[in-house]
Design brief:
6-stranded mixed sheet; 19 strands; Transferase(Phosphotransferase), domain 1; 7-stranded mixed sheet; 3 domains; 16 helices; single chain; alpha/beta; binds S-adenosylmethionine; Rossmann fold
Length: 478
């Protein structure tokens, strides 16, 4: 396992410069903290045998190489009460499980099971059975909680499966039945996972049927038989299975998840790019809008791009070509799934479900620094350049936004530039929505409001006719 050396002399991290991400509860055996913008973990003395076990067998490096676990190195840094300080690589965009599209949620579920199959063969497991320890880098789900690795005999395997149902299987069931919004809302209550009776329909009730029959038929022959079966079932659940049985149980779950068919229903925007998704390698087939955005990305050279309301990501894929770190967000799960599946082989674009009208703010309890436990989406999904294309006229004519609302909503996601499309009254759709009460809806007014938020505002032609790209920039030396 490589060790990152800081200097000839070992550096002691001043405690007052450290910000811990978790409480000091003894249950947190490897506390995560930030120091000088980097992510670390403090391993106390009792955690060293597990470190030696994971590194001695080469297992941790194997997990990192096979992209199960986030890149991690040991350091020679010193922090009070830590016997060892580990450093994790930072993932560019942090999306929470309730923001994953259903294709991503399925991929994360499979990966989690595979990780546990892998760990079981070495006599280990993850003590936490939830998706909050998984972070997406592009389309790759990476497990990030070093503190979750424990010896297999320490976990109660029936509890593990019950938690797995609540935290992975039930949300997935809701998503694939088209109840994605319900799943997302319920998942925000991190500490209260979904229960089986919260699922629509009663297909899971059979799991309790023996107990029910036993109660109903009491001392009759049928009741006694049911009681025996209920006892047997409980005994079976409480028995710790052999490693072999455990691995085949996990493999069975993995096959069940793999068989899941993602939702295919038609949404309002799911076919937006169906017939017009020109080849990124053939600029001659691009529209004026596509060419202009490509030129602008060349000029602005942002290190990161947030393609907001990006649908299935034509512009995200364009930005990826210029080697920017890219996140594509939209409030259409089906459109995001199309992008997820399209870029499985080239997986650097991160995806997240985001409704620009109702972005999820900081939530959860307040920590020792007075901060909410879960940060708002604007803090996690910021980029140097935001693209907001084909969106603002919908916000004006269907969501009753005005221009200050639009720039307020969009500017919170950019660290520097915004490329936003203005669709004028001449456009074929806007023409049918416009009436006299929208006399303020002009390109000049749009640019005037843009200047209240940005220092440089410039206009380029877009396509079809009557559409414009408004390029908003902050001064570079800020
Ligand atoms: C006309 S398409 C534009 C797609 C792409 N940006 C482009 O210009 O080619 C509009 C997109 O906005 C998304 N959208 C609409 N309302 C939204 C909202 N409130 N939050 C996030 N996305 C939204 C739709 O799902 C759709 O994918």
């Amino acid at each position: 396992m490589p060790t990152e050396l800081t200097s000839a002399q070992q550096t002691t991290i001043p405690e007052e410069e450290v910000e811990f991400a978790t409480s000091a509860s003894p249950l947190h055996t490897a506390r995560l903290f930030t120091w000088r913008g980097e992510l670390y973990r403090a391993i106390p003395e009792p955690g060293l045998p597990m470190w030696n076990r994971l590194t001695g067998t080469g297992l941790l490096q194997e997990l990192i190489d096979q992209k199960y676990f986030v890149e991690t190195v040991a350091t020679d840094l010193k922090l009070a009460e830590a016997a060892l300080v580990l450093k994790h690589r930072r993932i560019p965009f942090l999306s929470y499980p309730y923001e994953w599209c259903s294709a991503a949620f399925k991929a994360a579920t499979i990966r989690f099971l595979e990780l546990n199959i892998h760990l079981a063969s070495e006599g280990l497991a993850t003590t936490d059975v939830h998706p909050w320890n998984i972070v997406f880098e592009g389309t790759t789900p990476l497990f990030v909680d070093y503190g979750s690795f424990v010896p297999l005999e320490q976990i109660h395997r029936a509890d593990f499966i019950n938690q797995f149902r609540s935290q992975f299987w039930y949300p997935l069931q809701l998503m694939i039945k088209g109840h994605g919004r319900l799943a997302r809302t319920l998942m925000q209550e991190y500490s209260q996972p979904i229960q089986e009776d919260e699922l629509p329909g009663s297909r899971y009730l059979w799991r309790r049927c023996w107990l029910k029959l036993a109660k109903r038929f009491g001392h009759t022959r049928l009741g006694r038989g049911a009681q025996r079966l209920a006892r047997l079932n409980r005994f079976h659940l409480q028995r710790q299975p052999s490693t072999e049985t455990w691995v085949s149980e996990l493999q069975r779950w993995k096959r069940r998840v793999e068989r899941i068919r993602l939702p295919r229903q038609q949404t309002f925007w799911s076919h937006y790019y169906a017939e017009d998704f020109p080849d990124h390698q053939k600029p001659e087939s691009w529209s004026l809008k596509q060419k202009t955005v490509a030129d602008l990305l060349q000029e602005l050279k942002p290190a990161s791009v947030h393609d907001l309301a990006g649908n299935s990501g034509w512009y995200s894929l364009l930005a990826q070509q210029s080697e920017a770190q890219v996140i594509c967000t939209d409030n259409d799960d089906i459109a995001l799934n199309q992008l997820f599946q399209r870029q499985q082989s080239n997986s650097s674009i991160t995806l997240a479900y985001l409704n620009i009208i109702n972005p999820v703010g900081p939530h959860g309890t307040i920590d020792a620094h007075g901060k909410r436990l879960y940060t708002g989406v604007d803090e996690r999904l910021k980029a140097e350049c935001v693209l907001a294309l084909g969106l603002t006229h919908h916000l004006v004519f269907t969501e009753m936004f005005d221009f200050p609302f639009i720039f307020g909503a969009l500017s919170q996601f950019t660290q520097r530039d915004l490329i936003v499309e203005f669709v004028s009254r001449e456009d074929e759709y806007v023409k049918t929505w416009w009436n006299d009460s929208y006399d303020w809806y002009t390109l000049d007014e749009f640019c005037d409001v843009a200047r209240e938020f940005f220092e440089v505002v410039d206009v380029r032609d877009s396509s079809p006719a009557g559409r414009y790209l408004v390029v908003c920039q902050q001064k570079r030396n800020r």
